[in-house]
Amino acid sequence: MVTTLQVIAAFHVFFGVLWVGASLYIDVAWYRPWKNTRLVGELKLWQRILHPTGPFLGITSLLVLITGLIYMFTKYGTDFGVIWAGQSGRLVIISLILVVAAIIFAVTVTNRLSLRLIRMDLPEDPGTPIPSEAKGLMDGVSRASAVGTAIIVIVLILMVLAATGGV
Ligand code: HEM
């Protein structure tokens, strides 16, 4: 018989690996060629392709956080002192803090840079080289995204350590 905890764990791990996997794929497979575009026409095409990225990662991150909190409270109870007292629980709380930091960073830095780029008044002629200000924002978005991805990869490692009894 499948238990409630197993169902919660399955949803949590599904959203967790989706968030980490999608973030890594976007950084490696999309942001790299995106960052190397030279012409306004190419950039506008990329903007249309990348447009769903922010909402997709945003919703996935919230689903990881919500399923993670349900998992933590179901498995350990609601007393943070008790949770912190055990090695696995401590790793879970550290992961919670890192994930909240990663979400705040995504909203206040990565998304804000992306929005500035999307709202920028780019030249009409698609054959025009991308203005340096836009190039600067593209570098900023891809670097900020890489910082966020690094944080959640560390969390994934901490989670596996937590699930296997701690260090
Ligand atoms: C990038 C974000 C995260 C990823 C990729 C992730 C992934 C995972 C994975 C793969 C496991 C092991 C599943 C198992 O064997 O039971 C796990 C366990 C767990 N996760 Fe997460 N998680 C993330 C964030 C969070 C957050 C924010 C919380 C909220 C408090 C959380 C709470 C838990 C709990 C309570 C466990 C069980 C640990 C144990 O067995 O003691 N996770 N997570």
Layout of secondary structure:
Layout: H1 4-35, H2 40-50, H3 53-76, H4 80-85, H5 87-118, H6 132-163
Helix pairs in contact: 1-3, 1-6, 3-5, 5-6
Can you offer a commentary on this structure?
The protein has 167 residues and is mostly helical. It has one domain (4-164). The protein has helices at 4-35, 40-50, 53-76, 80-85, 87-118, 132-163. Helix 1 runs antiparallel to helix 3, helix 1 runs antiparallel to helix 6 (132-163) and helix 3 (53-76) packs antiparallel against helix 5 (87-118). The chain is elongated, with a radius of gyration of 19 Å. The mean pLDDT is 95. Bound molecules: protoporphyrin IX containing FE. The site of protoporphyrin IX containing FE has 25 residues, from helix 1, helix 3, helix 5 and helix 6.
Fill in the keyword field for this structure.
167 residues; binds protoporphyrin IX containing FE; 6 helices; elongated; mainly alpha
Assign an overall shape.
elongated
Secondary-structure element order, N to C = HHHHHH
Estimate the mean pLDDT confidence: 95
* Structural class by helix and strand composition: mainly alpha
Low-pLDDT runs of 5+ residues are none
Tell me the count of domains: 1
Largest sheet: none
Number of H- or I-type helical stretches? 6
Distance between the termini: 31 Å
SS strand fraction: under 5%
Helix content: over 70%
**Associated small molecules:** protoporphyrin IX containing FE
Q: Work out the radius of gyration.
A: 19 Å
Count of β-strands:
0
